[in-house]
Amino acid sequence: MSCFDADLIIIGAGPAGLAAAQYGAMANLKVLVLEQLSCGGQALVIDVLENYPGNAGQFDADGKMISSPRSGYEVAMDMYRQAQGFGAVFSTFYAKSMKKEDDVFIINFSDDKPLKAKAVIIATGSKPRLLDIPGEKEFSGKGVSYCAVCDGNFFKGKKIIVAGGGDAACEEAMYLSRLSDNITIVHRRDSFRAQKTLVQRIMNNPNIKVRFNTVIKEIKGGKKVNSVVLSGTKDGGISEEQADAVFICSGTVPQTGLAFSLNVELDENGYIVTDRNLATNIAGFFAAGDVRSGAFRQVVTAAADGAVAAHSAAEYIDSLTS
Ligand code: NAP
Questions:
Q1: pLDDT confidence of 47, banded at 50, 70, 90?
Q2: Whole-angstrom Cα distance, residue 170 to residue 275?
Q3: 165 lines ligand 1 (CB under 6 A)
Q4: pLDDT above 90 as % of the chain
Q5: Which of 29, 185, 241, 243 has the fewest CB neighbours in a 10 Å radius?
Q6: What are the two backbone dihedrals, phi and then psi, of residue 277, each rounded to the nearest 5 degrees?
Q7: Which atom of ligand 1 is nearest to the CA of 131?
Q8: Residue nearest to atom 9 of ligand 1 (CA)
Q9: Residue nearest atom 18 in ligand 1 by C-alpha distance
Q10: Whose CA is nearest to atom 22 of ligand 1?
């Protein structure tokens, strides 16, 4: 009897893990996907997934849009069902550590027995980067949030600050501008790094004001957020503005905790280094999506990574027996 619980274990079920599960199962591998929360990863908080190819919405004969692009949640759920349909098995587990003995990967949990696999794909993505300013942790859940789709509704018609200048900040601000006409984006530089079409929409949106060259120094309040202290990055000027909510979109940090126990090579920012086949320095251990170095960090590229990593894992597993 085989000592293996699966040929391929995939850790994380965001778009990269889901696509890897589908492609692994299609390659006839016994695939087990471990996810600590719910499937979908960061795609779950994308309100309108308009840049995913083929997800443009539907148009009538006159070119008028009759249904908008599907949300990240809807696309992720389809990916999940598709992977399951091909035979991938999903399980809710919080993997604690991992080791490799000979050609066997052993994944440990707090309470359950270890799982063994021939190959592993890590697709654990990334999590929000904190601004690390006074008041941020204290008011988290009391006006400070990292997800407009999750928490925006609590602040309908209120004064909302969005911090950051990337795609996430601009998308969150666009989403929030449908709930309130009083949104201010605070960004530390004098231009956005977000995609040009998105920046154009921000600049044309009457509900959104932009304060460039400004950072949030402190978030203040009582039981909940009342104000933010702002500082000019050029003139050093300090001001305080009333605010009911602060949505922080200052980027992400990779979730590589599990890789540490394997001594996987990381880049200078902590992302996992892979080759073009998404193989790491540990044979049989592959990385896909936002957790790997150099990723473009889009749903479409995460899904493509998943397919490549699963294909490479299948070739690696074949090589073990040939
Ligand atoms: P990001 O592109 O890294 O942008 C983070 C923003 O936060 C930057 O503008 C950065 O300022 C600012 N920032 C970072 N630390 C800060 C600090 N301590 N104080 C003040 N500002 C700070 O992160 P993201 O917007 O979360 O996006 C992450 C990745 O996901 C990107 O590759 C992005 O393209 C992708 N993404 C794509 C979509 C989409 O295509 N629909 C949506 C969301 C995210 P600087 O500009 O000065 O560095």
A1: confident
A2: 32
A3: yes
A4: 85
A5: 241
A6: -90, 5
A7: 18
A8: 165
A9: 131
A10: 250
Residues designated catalytic = 147, 150-151
Distance 281 CA to ligand 1 centre (A): 28
Phi, psi of 209 (to 5 degrees): -105, 150
pLDDT at 267 over 70: yes
pTM of the model: 0.87
Task: Tell me how far the alpha carbon of residue 81 lies from the centroid of ligand 1, in angstroms.
Answer: 30
Residue type, 208: I
Q: What sign for the dihedral angle of Cα 190, 193, 198, 200?
A: positive
What is d(CA 57, CA 173) in angstroms, rounded to the nearest whole number? 22
252 CB under 6 A from ligand 1? yes
Judged against a pLDDT cut of 90, whether residue 85 lies above it is answered with: yes
Q: Tell me the C-alpha distance between 57 and 198, whole Å.
A: 18
Distance 252 CA to ligand 1 centre (A): 7
Q: What is the pLDDT of residues 140-165, one digit of tens each?
A: 999 999 999 889 999 999 999 999 99
Query: pLDDT tens digits, residue range 100-131?
Result: 999 999 999 878 889 999 999 999 999 999 99
Q: Indicate which atom in ligand 1 lies nearest the CA of residue 193.
A: 46
Compute the C-alpha angle 149/155/156, nearest 5°. 95
DSSP conformation letters of 81-142: HHHHHTT-EEEE----EEEEETTEEEEE-SSSPPEEEEEEEE---EEEPP---TTTTTTBTT
Contact 134, 228 (CB under 8 A): no
Residue 37 has pLDDT above 90, yes or no: no
